[in-house]
Design goal:
Blueprint lengths: L11 H18 L3 H6 L6 H9 L18 H14 L1 H12 L1 H8 L2 H12 L5 E4 L15 E5 L2 E12 L6 E7 L9 E7 L5 E3 L13 E12 L3 E3 L4 H36 L1 E2 L2 E2 L4 H28 L6 H26 L10 H13 L4 H13 L8
Parallel strand pairs: 1-4
Antiparallel strand pairs: 2-3, 3-7, 4-5, 5-8, 6-7, 9-10
Helix pairs in contact: 1-4, 4-5, 4-8, 5-8, 6-8, 8-9, 8-10, 8-11, 9-10, 10-11, 10-12
Length: 391
């Protein structure tokens, strides 16, 4: 089955990139997908180094820091191909090309970029993001983790929750409250090392999906970091969240990959599986289900690549990013559910992988701002009105 191309035609360079990544994913990572999921295995560090050696971790980061300086859409092509085999293989590229490293690139000082981006490109570290707290999930501006300045250090106290990669990533971009002002006005972000003194991690969560990515509470007991690690000063939260639109497209692409992989497996299965003496693909109900899956996946890809193409090397239009994330998240849930139905009893078996894809699809919908939160952003932007969720 042929995957549709993104908006417009792929350049020869993009086609080569897509083909190289697809072969890498199928040959090197797809054979391990089931075992990694079953064992909650973390993506091996040596495999992250393979991605670095192929220049995939720095694909969207500037050349002056060792990256390739390619546009965002190229990074999404790579993420999709890797994630179709297993999201674990795509996660290091997701973090480097659409995650906290991009915040440092677009918001950090020259000194911060020169210090922190080359190790990401070289595969020596991954930077994860720590936003959510026990009482601050969708309401991110309710964050209570605090940072106070003492001399040339920032002292951090409080608890973070649902940090993807917690305990595994070498560094964390921590959203925290830097002043007494309520809401976004008092917030900023600081970079913290995994081995910082007085930083500890809770037990690894056993989640429905996202197995192997890692998720744990983070406890800051007066953790001290140099003030030079302050990436976003107080009052810069709005700018920080505009850059977060890049992460939303990375998230949308992870969902798109799951939907496409489920569609591909279903298309093969319905032509091989026989009932009543013929392939089930010959039954109209099966054809209708498959057509719905195809349309939804195609539409999701168009929305993702529209936003990425318009972003170029910069930040996506927030509404376009939210539309792409919301639609792709829900497409992944629907399409993987239909894949299970087309596979019948086999779809409920771990052997056929579609049940794993369905579990992972729900995780990506929850991460990075739920579909319902995206709907609020979409309507607010379209109407040019701000809706206060507290009233």
């Amino acid at each position: 089955m042929q995957t549709p191309t993104p908006v417009g035609s792929l350049s020869s360079d993009q086609a080569d990139l897509k083909d190289m990544t697809r072969r890498l994913a199928l040959d090197r990572y797809a054979p391990h997908a089931q075992a990694w999921d079953r064992d909650y295995a973390h993506f091996p560090d040596e495999e992250r180094q393979v991605l670095a050696d192929l220049d995939l971790l720095g694909i969207a980061l500037p050349e002056e820091y060792g990256g390739s300086g390619r546009p965002l859409v190229d990074a999404l092509i790579v993420i999709e191909e890797l994630a179709k085999a297993t999201p674990l293989a795509a996660f290091p590229v997701f973090e480097a090309a659409t995650g906290p490293a991009r915040v440092i690139e677009l918001c950090g000082t020259e000194e911060q970029k020169a210090e922190h981006l080359p190790p990401v490109v070289q595969g020596r570290k991954t930077i994860a993001v720590a936003i959510s707290e026990p009482d601050a999930g969708s309401a991110a501006t309710d964050a209570t983790v605090r940072g106070r300045v003492e001399g040339d250090e920032l002292v951090i106290s409080g608890t973070k929750r649902w940090c993807s990669g917690a305990g595994y990533a070498e560094q964390y971009l921590v959203y925290l409250r830097l002043g007494p002002e309520k809401g976004a006005a008092g917030l900023g972000a600081v970079l913290v090392d995994r081995d910082a003194e007085q930083l500890s991690f809770g037990e690894q969560e056993h989640l429905m999906g996202h197995r192997g990515v890692g998720s744990a509470d983070m406890f800051f007991d007066d953790v001290r970091v140099p003030i030079e690690r302050l990436i976003i000063p107080q009052g810069g939260f709005k700018h920080l969240f505009s850059v977060f639109s890049i992460e939303r497209l990375g998230n949308a692409t992870m969902s798109l990959a799951l939907a496409q992989a489920a569609l591909d497996r279903s298309a093969r299965y319905v032509q091989e599986r026989k009932q009543f003496g013929r392939a089930i693909a010959e039954f109209q109900m099966v054809q209708g289900t498959l057509a719905d899956m195809i349309m939804q996946v195609d539409a999701a890809r168009l929305l993702v690549h529209r936003a990425a193409t318009n972003a170029g090397h910069g930040v996506p239009i927030p509404r376009e990013a939210s539309i792409a994330k919301c639609f792709s998240n829900e497409t992944a849930k629907r399409v993987t559910d239909m894949a299970i139905q087309l596979h019948g009893g086999y779809g409920y078996s771990a052997e056929y992988d579609v049940e794993r894809m369905h579990r992972d699809a729900h995780g990506w919908a929850l991460a990075g701002g739920t579909p319902n939160m995206q709907r609020i952003r979409i309507a607010s932007d379209y109407l040019e009105r701000r809706f206060d969720q507290r009233s």
